Amino acid sequence: MLAPTPEQYRRLNEMAQAWKRRQADALEASPGRNPHLDVDALCFQACPDGGVESAGRDYLIGALISPVSLSLVLFPIFGSAAAPVEGERRAFELPSGRYPFVAEVLEEGQWLWRCQLLDDLSDLESREEGSRLAQRLMDKVMTPEDAT
Prior knowledge:
Blueprint: H1 6-29, E1 40-46, E2 59-65, E3 70-76, E4 89-94, E5 97-107, E6 110-118, H2 127-141
Antiparallel strand pairs: 1-2, 2-3, 3-6, 4-5, 5-6
């Protein structure tokens, strides 16, 4: 597993803040909103190499947690990468299987692929619990299917 560089961590933080700004009204209006959580990019690492439909080394993979959801995110390693069309759907092959992602263009030059996995985080009592949940998610996603 390759950890992001300091520059990539900076970009991941900017991405999380841009996503939060874009979703602010929906997050605030959600009846299942967990007041203990905030938007954060967690547990990011370089994607493993793989087949034709894999994410490949062009992305960092990690979790995006918010007060209402936990998502798997593919974020382009290079800020200059061309953005897909907003709402475009694509399945990516990861070590544990295929996952359906949707392209989200956050602002000029900033975009991601997102696969929402959980839409109810109301039972989490702290940001630390959210971080542990994200870590378990990433452990499962990055473990090959046949190893489970």
